Amino acid sequence: MKNLFSLEGKIAIVTGGSSGIGAMIAESFVRNGVKTYIISRKEEVLQNTAREFSKFGECIAISADLSEREGILKFIKKIKTIENKIDILINNAGTSWGASIEKFPEQGWDKVMDINLKSIFFLTQQCIPLLKLAGNKETPARVVNIASINGITHPNMPTYSYSSSKAAVIQLTRHMGADLAKDFININGIAPGYFPSKMTAFVEHDAEMQKMVLDKIPLGRMGKTEDIAGAAIYLCSEASSWICGQTIVVDGGMIAGAG
Q1: Number of H helices, E strands in the chain
Q2: Is residue 125 situated within a structural domain?
Q3: If I label 52, which of 22, 156, 216, 238 is the partner at 20 to 30 A Cα–Cα?
Q4: Which listed residue (37, 160, 162, 194) is catalytic?
Q5: If you compute the radius of gyration of the chain from its CA atoms, what whole number of angstroms results?
Q6: In this predicted model, what pLDDT tens digit does every residue of 66-125 receive, in sequence order?
Q7: 162 is catalytic
Q8: Are strands 185-192 and 247-250 parallel, antiparallel or unpaired?
Q9: Residue 227: inside a domain, yes or no?
Q10: Total structural domains in the chain?
Q11: Domain carrying residue 125
Q12: What is residue 68's DSSP assignment?
């Protein structure tokens, strides 16, 4: 019981780990003794984040484009030259697109689906051998897929591909979770509410919009690092060894308080 939430000595990959929720999770891992690889396409931001987090422990930046299979295979080839197992995979990389239903472009659909959904499936697929080598019956390897409350309720924004992709992530988490449990790989998800990120910047910088959002959150504030870190640490620690295929909502009560 004493080390129920310990991640000391684990090896983790966090996609989209250079900013937003990905960076929050990555920082919490590094501070808790996890050797953490952060993955992103934007080299400069990625390296800056890795340098900052390296003050607290091991954080390694690897630039990769995970929206295409070629980029995923290139990344897997590289990580296999460094590590012979991976304990934790956080599928966080994501993007959004907004347009009216009448004008929503195919590009906005495909780009979001490729990054938010397709990359989760194929990166996890390619990581299975490394995850298998880390997991066992008592201590399974972990995969955490970052979904969104917008995949559960109406987002009240014209982000059709985003909400659809996140709903699909929740179902994919159930499906893969059940199928890979036999290999001692626990797959679960987190559906965050409003956290500071590039996607929610429009809320943070608009006082009227911020008030409107906060009024819908029973706990009366946006999420902070500790909120998402707590959920991620739980799903990657011994404490959740018997949790499989589930998606935890971390939203300050927003869905619970919705009419």
Answers
A1: 9, 7
A2: yes
A3: 238
A4: 162
A5: 18
A6: 999 999 999 999 999 999 999 999 999 999 999 999 999 999 999 999 999 999 999 999
A7: yes
A8: parallel
A9: yes
A10: 1
A11: 11-250
A12: S
